[in-house]
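REQUEST FORM: STRUCTURE PREDICTION
Request ID: SP-0412
Submitted by: Lab K.M.
Chain count: 1
Length (residues): 167
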Amino acid sequence: MFDTAKLDWFNQQHLWRCHPPSWRSGVKPLLEAAGLWHNDYGKERHAWLFVVLELLKPRARKLTDFVELGRYFFEEWPAYDPVAVVKHLRSEGMREHLQAMDAAFAAVDSFDAESAEAALRAVAEARGVKAASLIHALRVALTGRSASPGLFEGGGTAWPAGDPSPY
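STATUS: Completed
RESULT:
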């Protein structure tokens, strides 16, 4: 009997243990086939691409998952999941909460994960709402999905020294 779930698990383990250039180079043709590849990902934006792929890696079970899980990183506008929109963006006052977050983020001196999270939590406290509701709403507004890498992940990841771009 063939167990596809077990095969996916083995493949995920392989991705986690594999040297990054070996699996990152496999993502390029998939992004090309989906119409999401830009040549600058192999040049001046290769460090950005590295960070994106590292953010997606914990959720990816196979190379095709990088395209589906991270499509919103590569498109100008994300496709919005209607269920996520209703659940997280249509609640009373959410538009005003998001506008308050926008103003708070614009006022941050150094926009990094720590500062962004502090600004979001300050808005939540000032507006009397749970930070989690703002985090979920912001996630849907930015990605179109109710699940994604953490909003405050990945800020400190850098292109590894001595690791040439495989693109």
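NOTES: The two ends are 38 Å apart (CA to CA).
Reviewed by: T.R.
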